Amino acid sequence: MSKIGIGINLEFVRHEDKPFEWAVKKAAELGYEYVEPMLHLGRELLSEAGYFHSVSMFDDPLRVKRACDAAGVKLSGFSAHTPLCKPEISTEYLKQAIRFAAECGAPVVNTDEGPKPKWTTVEEDHVLMRYVLQEAANVAEPRGIAIGIEPHQQYSQTPAGLDRICGLVKSRAIGVNFDTGNSYLAGEDPIKWLKHVKSRLVHLHAKDISIQQSSAERGKVTGTPVGCACGEGVIDWAKVIAVCKTCPRDIVFSVECGTVPQAAKSIEHLRKILGK
């Protein structure tokens, strides 16, 4: 039986105007065992000034490791979303994210196909994605890093569409970062879809969707940045846990919510179901 860890995507402090190290410490204070930081290339004002949690890949990767070690948490992976359909952006970004992850000890780099160019066809987009994923897999395989492709955009919003992307490159590095909330909002059955991908699952975004958001957006969008607190929405977490316990590898649930109070409620609910 696979083990399930409870982690959190650092988006939960997005409105706190605090730096990366503060976010990691707050996650630990709430009882989370794992964190999933967000990476960016270059420099930007908010994170440089200490008002946002994202980490630049121009920084020393050991900055991340030191912060996690100091707080007593581990890395479940990195949020490294980049438009796979746009190789001029995503190829070098994803390769650098993989190298960054390897140096600081993150086992997974999560991404999705992103918004597509306006002028390309479906078939052209899949050729472009194949190029990016092959280049990324060439870097990820020798480092033992998994690439978690998430259902989030125009092509990955269905099981068949996600399967096609994952099948573009034959590599042990290519896996699935399943998002419970995105799959639900896309109009799919998240439990059925999760069972379908469990053999390829490398990471899970534990995102719940409120009744209000479900009523307004289900079947109309392909995803959402964050959800409500786990246990306060439509996702059946007992069923999600039951499926993940049958996966071939241990899985971290990385909670995706938008506030610190939601993060506190989420870990309380998930712990209760897991019996922790």
Strand order, sheet with most strands = 5-2-1-11-10-9-8-7-6
Question: Which ranges are low-confidence, i.e. pLDDT below 50, for 5 or more consecutive residues?
Answer: none
Shape: globular
- DSSP summary: helix tally: 11
Total beta-strand segments: 11
Ends apart, CA distance between termini? 16 Å
CATH class categorisation: Alpha Beta
Rg value: 17 Å
Mean pLDDT: 97
**CATH homologous superfamily placement:** Divalent-metal-dependent TIM barrel enzymes
Structure description:
There is one protein chain. The chain is of the alpha/beta class and 276 residues long. The chain has a single domain (4-274), classed as Alpha-Beta Barrel (TIM Barrel), CATH 3.20.20. The protein is built from 11 helices and 11 strands. The chain has helices spanning 20-29, 45-48, 61-71, 87-104, 122-140, 159-166, 180-185, 190-197, 211-217, 237-244, 260-274, and strands at residues 4-9, 34-36, 39-40, 55-56, 74-75, 78-83, 108-112, 146-149, 174-179, 201-206, 251-255. The strands form 2 sheets. The chain has a 9-stranded parallel β-sheet. Helix 3 (61-71) crosses helix 4 (87-104), helix 4 (87-104) packs parallel to helix 5 and helix 8 packs parallel to helix 10.
